[in-house]
């Protein structure tokens, strides 16, 4: 384990202590980054994990593992709750009353409405509230990634201290209210996750590893496969909280399922003219007119970057089979129905969203490619069974979210995760390389 690096802590904050309640993947990442910068960190998770965490971080002089959140809350100047959104109220209710007098408290959940409510309900009145949210996963380099900071109830001095602590992440600070955070994260994440979750569920239902045959070949397919594996390799609650607890996300996931279903019916019915008219109208609403497009002159993604990141090893003579790209057509149809222009929130976009927007743009920027996808949608049955399973999957996720069933979500997620898990080590490695290459290729 690496030891702590040289200190970047201002002299006036040498005694400042950061507490982290919840040492999952993001909690550990924050603890390591902050301690590397010289900050004193005390942290905890469930008491049964105490001994294991204590041994894991024994070589880090700046990190002290404590038995529970009471001990962390009593001693910390800034406490970060890094727990799943579904548990935030229960955890803050237990440890919040023990918060140090005059401390600052924040959270790292992906849905701020229940987080802020828990803080207001259970924290002492003398405590300031400054929350944050790193819009990326724990394996992504924090440098230049968006970091939302929410000054909900705090003095300027407290807010400055939080910014000083988090500056060691070298992220791009984005200042939002809790409400705006939830609206924008729904716009940039909810439907993206629903699409990948549905693809994985469809492939699972067909007992298919898509990279093992020639049906899914090429840059767009590489993004679909790699990011689906990336999502299913995570813990189930990472995406459940955002989808189920965020009202805006619920609406969007429901609309995505409707868009998938309605477009699929047009394909089955052979209604090419109606399908084309609907998709082109959505394209204009989302991406702008041909003479005044929303996208930049240069595309977000390039084939030569994406083609190198295949999980399989297709034959040299393999060519992509014609594909109607229902998942992408439905994405734009959904954005159109909800009045979402994805470029409006690029400052808060996650790496997954930028990749997904990139492949969607890739299809819609090329009139010939888009027209071919629409023709294939009606005239070619090669992917018809895949599309049927995808439609079932999208509707299943939407129903689960609409009912607010965390247990159903967990079961749906984990059974598909189990199907793919032997492939995760390779998939995650390739996916990480792809994300890094794409981010580097799209830097200003």
How would you characterize the overall build of this protein?
- Helix 4 runs parallel beside helix 5 (112-122), helix 8 (219-232) packs antiparallel against helix 14 (351-365) and helix 9 (237-245) crosses helix 10.
- Mean pLDDT is 89; it is low at 1-5.
- Helix 2 (50-56) links the parallel strand 2 and strand 3 (63-65).
- The protein has 18 helices and ten strands.
- The two termini are 34 Å apart.
- The protein is of the alpha/beta class and 444 residues long.
- Helix content is 55%, strand content 10%.
What distinguishing features does this structure have?
alpha/beta; 444 residues; eight-stranded mixed sheet; elongated; disordered N terminus
As a percent range, the share of strand residues is 5-15%
Q: How would you sum up the major sheet?
A: 8 strands, mixed
Number of helices in the DSSP assignment: 18
Mean pLDDT: 89
Low-confidence stretches: 1-5
User: What is the helix/strand order?
Assistant: EHEHEHEHEHEEHEHHHHHEEHHHHHHH
Percent of residues in helices comes to 40-55%
Task: Characterize this entry briefly.
The protein is an alpha/beta fold and 444 residues long. The protein has 18 helices and ten strands. The chain has helices at residues 25-36, 50-56, 69-75, 88-95, 112-122, 156-166, 178-205, 219-232, 237-245, 247-269, 272-287, 303-306, 326-338, 351-365, 367-379, 384-403, 406-420, 424-441; strands spanning 17-21, 40-44, 63-65, 78-81, 104-107, 128-134, 146-153, 172-175, 288-289, 292-293.
List the helices and strands and how they pair.
Elements: E1 17-21, H1 25-36, E2 40-44, H2 50-56, E3 63-65, H3 69-75, E4 78-81, H4 88-95, E5 104-107, H5 112-122, E6 128-134, E7 146-153, H6 156-166, E8 172-175, H7 178-205, H8 219-232, H9 237-245, H10 247-269, H11 272-287, E9 288-289, E10 292-293, H12 303-306, H13 326-338, H14 351-365, H15 367-379, H16 384-403, H17 406-420, H18 424-441
Parallel strand pairs: 1-2, 1-4, 2-3, 4-5, 5-6, 7-8
Antiparallel strand pairs: 6-7, 9-10
């Amino acid at each position: 384990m690496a030891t702590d690096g040289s200190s970047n802590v201002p002299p006036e904050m040498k005694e400042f202590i950061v507490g982290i309640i919840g040492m999952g993947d993001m909690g550990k990442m924050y603890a390591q980054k902050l301690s590397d910068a010289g900050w004193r960190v005390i942290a905890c998770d469930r008491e049964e994990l105490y001994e294991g965490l204590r041994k894991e971080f024994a070589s880090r002089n700046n990190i002290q593992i404590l038995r529970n959140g009471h001990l962390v809350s009593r001693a910390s100047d800034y406490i970060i709750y890094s727990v799943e959104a579904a548990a935030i109220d229960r955890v803050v209710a237990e440890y919040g009353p023990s918060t140090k007098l005059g401390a600052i408290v924040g959270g790292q959940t992906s849905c701020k409405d229940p987080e802020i409510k828990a803080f207001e309900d259970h924290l002492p009145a003398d405590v300031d509230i400054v929350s944050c949210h790193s819009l990326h996963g724990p394996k992504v380099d924090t440098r230049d990634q968006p970091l939302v900071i929410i000054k909900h109830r705090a003095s300027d001095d407290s807010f400055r201290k939080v910014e000083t602590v988090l500056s060691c992440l070298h992220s791009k600070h984005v200042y939002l209210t809790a409400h705006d955070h939830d609206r924008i994260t729904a716009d940039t994440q909810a439907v993206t996750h629903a699409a990948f979750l549905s693809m994985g569920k469809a492939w699972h239902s067909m007992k298919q590893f898509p990279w093992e045959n020639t049906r899914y070949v090429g840059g767009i397919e590489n993004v679909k496969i790699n990011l689906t594996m990336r999502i299913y390799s995570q813990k189930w609650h990472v995406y459940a909280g955002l989808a189920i607890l965020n009202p805006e996300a619920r609406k969007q996931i429901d609309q995505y399922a409707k868009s998938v279903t309605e477009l699929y019916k047009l394909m089955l019915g052979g209604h090419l003219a109606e399908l084309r008219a609907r998709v082109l109208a959505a394209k204009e609403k989302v991406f702008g007119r041909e003479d005044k497009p929303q996208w930049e002159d240069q595309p977000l993604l390039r084939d030569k970057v994406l083609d190198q990141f295949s999980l399989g090893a297709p034959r040299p003579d393999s060519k992509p089979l014609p594909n109607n790209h229902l998942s992408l057509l439905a994405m734009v149809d959904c954005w159109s129905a909800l009045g979402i222009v994805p470029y409006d929130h690029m400052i808060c976009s996650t790496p997954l969203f930028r990749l997904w927007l990139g492949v969607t743009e890739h299809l819609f920027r090329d009139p010939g490619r888009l027209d071919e996808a629409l023709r294939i949608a009606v005239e070619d049955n090669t992917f018809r069974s895949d599309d049927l399973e995808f439609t079932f999957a999208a509707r299943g996720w939407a129903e689960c979210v609409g009912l607010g069933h965390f247990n159903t979500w967990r079961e749906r997620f984990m059974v598909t995760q189990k199907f793919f898990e032997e492939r995760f080590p390779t998939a995650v490695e390739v996916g990480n390389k792809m994300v890094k290459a794409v981010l580097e290729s799209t830097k200003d």
